[in-house]
Amino acid sequence: MTKWGKRTEAVHSGVRRSQFGELSEAMFMTQAFSYDSAEAAEARFIESGHDEFIYARYGNPTNRMFEDRIAALEGTEDAFACASGMAAVNGALMALTQAGDHVVSSRALFGSCLYLLEDILGRFGVEITLVDGTDNAEWNDAIRPDTKLVFLEAISNPTLEVIDLDHVVKLAHANGALVVVDNAMPTPVFSYATKLGADLVVYSTTKHVDGQGRMLGGAICGSRDLIRGPIETYVKHTGGAINPFAAWTHLKALETLDLRVRAQADAAMKVAEALADHPKLSRMSYPQHPSHPQHAISMQQSPSGGTVLAVEVKGGKEACFRFLNALEIFIISNNFADAKSIATHPATTTHQRLPQEQKDILGISDGLVRLSIGLEDVEDLITDLMNGLDAV
């Protein structure tokens, strides 16, 4: 077969079997590799083949299996596995920019991404322009002929804004800029970034790929020239590569990714429908619910709204905390995309350190709750949420 479906790719892509013919992929826990001769060592340092390795920070057979498999799922030529999602974002942005470059980004980003852009890249002389990612006119005004790179979250965390990716990619490419998309919310299962022309797609594999709260990880997916050129060079020299145990755990988790994410996304839509008109909520946000401001573009771009929704509880922080503390199934945590359902209060956790003015611009109010839908019975989840709202 020349093209496999995603479930088949998730089980079989990238496999490298040793001489023992193991069925389950092997985990190679080694820092370095040996050579048959001094001449062989010299030759490998001059040019390493696809299955030739030097040092774990540069590459590892287990890591390579994971990289090949997630690249196959995303539909890109290659991928580089990183120690965390933020290591992947850092690797993609730092490897492709230098002092004097201009970067345009949506302002609705995870707090650490904002820090990387404004504090780190800004400190090193990169000009940063932040825009309302849902407003195509702002992208039109911000992207210039000298713009080097465009960065965005396909669906923003935690407010779930949806960006017209087709418009942004075409505009960026017309001006010679590369497009880097953080794809944590759409997931590899419902990804549309590569199809719409994104140059690099970044994942926190800590989220849906691992999906069970075990391992940190990240991945940068893209063309072989970018991945094995500036990306690999930067990440291997700065120490951001994934460790083989995490890569192996993610590799095995990919086998069930499609099944897990589709079940979670179906449940998320049912939860969204149940909460849409609740009198104790001022709003409910789920990309493919008709009430979402970018519902039309979400339906056009993706077959699903993903596994996460957001609600705003009337009454601010005090009412919100009553709601959270009354939940029995949902776990209060700052993670998302787990097999267990999770409720997060961004204003006091993941986005706590943002200035209030910035929270207001992003829509991160004291009543906002991010709900990550797990693999429990959806009827139980809806009952749990309704009981929580009864406590408000």
Secondary structure elements and their pairing?
Layout: H1 6-12, H2 38-46, H3 61-74, E1 78-82, H4 85-96, E2 102-106, H5 111-123, E3 127-131, H6 136-142, E4 147-153, H7 165-174, E5 178-182, E6 200-204, E7 218-222, H8 224-238, H9 244-275, E8 281-285, H10 295-301, E9 308-313, H11 316-326, E10 331-332, E11 342-344, H12 356-362, E12 368-372, H13 378-390
Parallel strand pairs: 2-3, 2-4, 4-5, 5-6, 10-11
Antiparallel strand pairs: 1-7, 6-7, 8-9, 9-12, 11-12
General description of the model:
- The protein is of the alpha/beta class.
- The chain folds into two domains: 6-253, Aspartate Aminotransferase, domain 2, CATH 3.40.640.10; 258-390, Alpha-Beta Complex (Aspartate Aminotransferase, domain 1), CATH 3.90.1150.10.
- The protein contains 13 helices and twelve strands.
- It has helices at residues 6-12, 38-46, 61-74, 85-96, 111-123, 136-142, 165-174, 224-238, 244-275, 295-301, 316-326, 356-362, 378-390; strands at 78-82, 102-106, 127-131, 147-153, 178-182, 200-204, 218-222, 281-285, 308-313, 331-332, 342-344, 368-372.
- The protein has a seven-stranded mixed beta sheet, sandwiched between helices.
- Helix 3 packs parallel to helix 9 (244-275), helix 4 crosses helix 8 and helix 11 (316-326) packs across helix 13 (378-390).
- The longest helix has 32 residues, at 244-275.
- The radius of gyration is 21 Å and the shape is globular.
- The mean pLDDT is 95.
